């Protein structure tokens, strides 16, 4: 649902709130993005934000996560995301549309530091792609390790070949 909302609104960022119990999300509420520059920022409509938080509170739901989309960049909090985060107890879920497949990542943002956290929404596990996280150098290192393993395998299988039959001397 969030991915669909994000796709529909691109290139604008979308945002919203996720309510739930014991960290388990039960409700996703889109909140209008009223940022002056919605292509690069999100600012939640204050009235809807307050109304939703109040409704969560009355329903005994906690704020599990604040979500927003990054239509063009990765699922990593921007400096303004960190500066403007006000809910240290909630996860910051970011959906990136940079790749063909929407990509989710969640972060705990508190005291200007960020930490990656795992979240699951509804019954669909997020498509967390560890490879995506790696730096270029790490990717190259993995590639080299792969090539080395391949070479070792070939050398090893040549070694295992039966020895050439010896030609009997006349
Ligand atoms: Zn952002």
Question: What is the topological layout?
Answer:
Layout (H helix, E strand, L loop, with lengths): L1 H8 L5 E7 L2 E8 L14 H13 L3 E9 L8 H5 L7 E6 L6 E8 L2 E5 L12 H4 L2 H25 L10
Parallel strand pairs: 3-4
Antiparallel strand pairs: 1-2, 1-3, 4-5, 5-6
The structure holds zinc ion.
Question: What would a concise description of this structure say?
Answer:
The chain is α+β, with helices and mostly antiparallel strands.
Description:
This protein is α+β, with helices and mostly antiparallel strands. The protein has one domain (2-128): Cytidine Deaminase, domain 2, CATH 3.40.140.10. It has helices at 2-9, 46-58, 79-83, 130-133, 136-160; strands spanning 15-21, 24-31, 62-70, 91-96, 103-110, 113-117. The protein has a 6-stranded mixed beta sheet with strand order 2-1-3-4-5-6, with helices on both faces. Strand 5 (103-110) and strand 6 (113-117) form a beta hairpin. The longest helix is centred in the C-terminal third of the chain and has 25 residues, at 136-160. It binds zinc ion (ZN). Zinc ion is lined by residues 68, 70, 78, 81. The site of zinc ion (ZN) has 4 residues, from strand 3.
Which shape, going by the Cα principal axes? elongated
Give the bound compounds: zinc ion
- Largest sheet entry: 6 strands, mixed
Q: How much helicity do the residues have?
A: 25-40%
Per DSSP E runs of 2 or more residues, the count of β-strands stands at 6
Strand order of the largest sheet: 2-1-3-4-5-6
Residue windows where pLDDT falls under 50 for at least 5 positions: 124-132
Q: What is the residue-averaged pLDDT?
A: 83
Order of helices and strands: HEEHEHEEEHH
Q: Tell me the name of the CATH homologous superfamily.
A: Cytidine Deaminase, domain 2
Domains (count): 1
Return the structural class: alpha+beta
Level-2 CATH architecture: 3-Layer(aba) Sandwich
First-residue to last-residue Cα separation: 82 Å
Radius of gyration using CA atoms only? 24 Å
CATH fold assignment = Cytidine Deaminase, domain 2
Output the number of helix runs. 5
């Amino acid at each position: 649902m969030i991915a669909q909302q994000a796709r529909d609104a691109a290139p604008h960022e979308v945002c919203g709130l996720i309510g739930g119990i014991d960290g388990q999300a039960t409700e996703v509420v889109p909140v209008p993005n009223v940022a002056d520059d919605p292509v690069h920022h999100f600012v939640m409509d204050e009235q809807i934000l307050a109304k939703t938080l109040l409704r969560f509170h009355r329903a005994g739901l906690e704020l599990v996560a604040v979500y927003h989309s990054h239509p063009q960049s990765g699922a990593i909090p921007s400096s303004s995301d960190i500066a403007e985060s006000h809910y240290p107890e909630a996860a910051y879920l970011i959906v990136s549309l940079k790749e063909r497949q929407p990509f989710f990542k969640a972060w705990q943002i508190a005291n200007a530091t960020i930490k990656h956290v795992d979240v699951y929404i509804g019954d669909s596990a997020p498509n967390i792609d560890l490879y995506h996280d790696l730096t270029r150098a790490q990717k190259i290192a993995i590639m080299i390790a792969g090539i080395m393993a391949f070479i070792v395998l070939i050398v090893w299988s040549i070694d295992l070949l039966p020895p050439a039959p010896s030609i009997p001397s006349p």
